[in-house]
Give the backbone structure.
Amino acid sequence: MSDRFEQMDVLIIGGGPIGLSCGIACRKAGLSHAILEKGALVNSLYNYPLNMTFFSTSEKLEIGSVPFISHNPKPTRDEALEYYRRVALHWTLDIRLYEKVVKVTKEGMGFTVHSSRKDYACRSLIISTGFYDLPNLMGIAGEGMSKVHHYYKEPHPYFGQDILVVGAANSAVDVALETMRKGARVTMVVREDSIRETVKYWVRPDIENRIKEGSIKAYFNSTVKAIRENEVDLVTPEGMVSIRNDFVLAMTGYLPDFQFLKSLGVLLGDDEMLTPVHDPVTMETNIPGIFLAGVICGGMQTNKWFIENSRDHGDRIVARILDKKP
């Protein structure tokens, strides 16, 4: 192998909580490794709304035997960012931030990884890229307009504006409530006939009561037909409705990077969830030496895997790597 390659046992793509937990598993096993992250540390969490509160309690978000102490029953985004910074420092993890993977090729018994900064050679590859990068598009006229946002940070820009929130899950409900309370005129459009049962139990009564009292207007069993400069067209049970609009906040979910998985040769299931083919025990894909960790294992079923039920993926993967290592 050429000297221009940095060689190691394991390369981890994705510096979220599960990527960090995989790095910790490698560190404990004495495997040389690095974590490549195209953005900031735990980039998806960083891009969450500023005032977000987790559904899980702090102990369920812990990794690497580092205690997560929260001032609230449910930790906040800022507390989580502080916690995972401490984890990275505690375990002295080798994290290469703002370094995007460009291409991966199979080379003999291992892989060559070309990033935006350099090249790597590794025997095993762990994909822990999450699903927060690609919005689940509605595929309608006007969706590409600048007033349509698939990500939400804070309510202030929407003060005094007519807002349409698309969706009925946790993110849509949080956005609707927060923007309404900060002075936006909020309408929700929901495909289903009610707010989803999976919405956080302490939030669901709040959104239902706000809709009931009229603080938030909601169209159920409805979809967005088209988005225009000052209006939005909705298909409702009563027919087509056009409403005044300044911004559309499309909280329609996000998708894993299936194209990247395909480029690696990882097969996708033929079901509607496009579940990547992998061993549920070892997490190894149909390509020997390539492993999946975290939410990406569920394909389109992005609510199957969370930090709390996938933080052991790194230990499973490392056990398989050690079993195969010469």
